[in-house]
Amino acid sequence: MTNEQFLSYLKGKEETQRVEFKSACIWDEKTFAKDILAMSNVQNGGYIIIGVDDSTFKPTGINSEIKNSYNIDIMKDQMTKYADPHVDFSIMTFQDESGKEYIVIKINQFEEIPVICRRDNPSAQVTKGKIYYRNRDRRVESASVSNSYDMRNIIELAIIRMFNRKKELGYNIKFSDEEKFEKEFNEINNIKDPILLDLINNNIKKYGHWEITFQPNIFRPILESVEECKNLVRNNYVDIIGWDFPHFPTHSEKIQDIQNGNDCCQAWTNYGQYKEFWKLYKSGHFIIYIALREDWYKEDIRKNDFLMRIEPNKYIGVRYTILAKAYEIFEFLSRLCKNGLYNEGVNIKIRLNNIENRELWFEKNPSNFSMQDNRTSAPYREYQKELTKDKIIINSIENSIDFALYILDCFGWYPPRELIRKYIEEIINGN
User: Fold this and answer.
1) Do 418 and 405 form a contact (C-beta atoms < 8 A)?
2) Would you say domain 3-168 falls under CATH 3.30.950.30?
3) Domain segments of the chain: what residues?
């Protein structure tokens, strides 16, 4: 962990699968045993940050007495009683911008096989024979594995570890499904086209932007051709605000294009306030990056006098950026499912980036910035959920409401569910 990463976790004020906050406290094995066991079974391990109120996430720092109680040799000796095989962790210290100190326990992922609890301790809330994990089917927490999705993740991690060990010994091992999807995702980082590189790095990622992926639970070629990928988007994009999602270019020109790739089709747009790039693979793996429109109003070809005065990184629109986008995402996903994709379910990942210090803006009355108190200090907001095909098709609006409320939560606005439903239905109906 770098100091920059540490500060971003503090500002994010959000516990994740890899980050846990603990209030300032001296080392006690009973306080930390379950979290250390759980994070050792998570891909790439995780961090426990001591010195952050674990109910309000307010950074408080630690004093010298607390700091001196974290003796790595004693901590490892005590944790040996709980872990089979052993857990590997280390200690780091950091300071925030005001000079307050924090302890960070860095827990590494298991080496070859998952870590199992080897003793009962009711005070530590651990039970012999249990596998602990950072559950994601509800509020993130360290708990014993309670569902097939989490158990499957742990097993896949163990298989990957085993495969990597075999490869080191000279065996020829086929890629796992997760590795195949990761390979597809990483192709974006290897783009050579200067136009696309400029669009992604100097436009889309310059200010606020969405990163959205639909990843099938099983890797297999669902679509027979790249042309089928293209037709699937062409026939199922969502258009409720006068601009389709994902945008499907009708022809190639300097501001947009659609192209055939390696087992995928891809498209890009750089048109005023509309900047996006997407790929759909024959595996059903869909990836899209979209810039927040409010950061690019000054490039809008319509030259609206009011919108031209809006500065980047200042606002985030409730109506079109959050609510409309929420519906577009889950409705497009629903349409893909109805056309034969994701029969085994899908893992949807959505990340809203570069939102720190933005305030909400309800665009239906553009001259009234009346939500100045609804501001976030989080640098980003990340959402991840596994959904079955039936839940996607049946609950398109409900899924979009869940997601919208999750995003709005970090801005301190907690509207009734029915109010969000009303707003989304108005958008769908063009009101």
Assistant:
1) no
2) yes
3) 3-168, 192-428
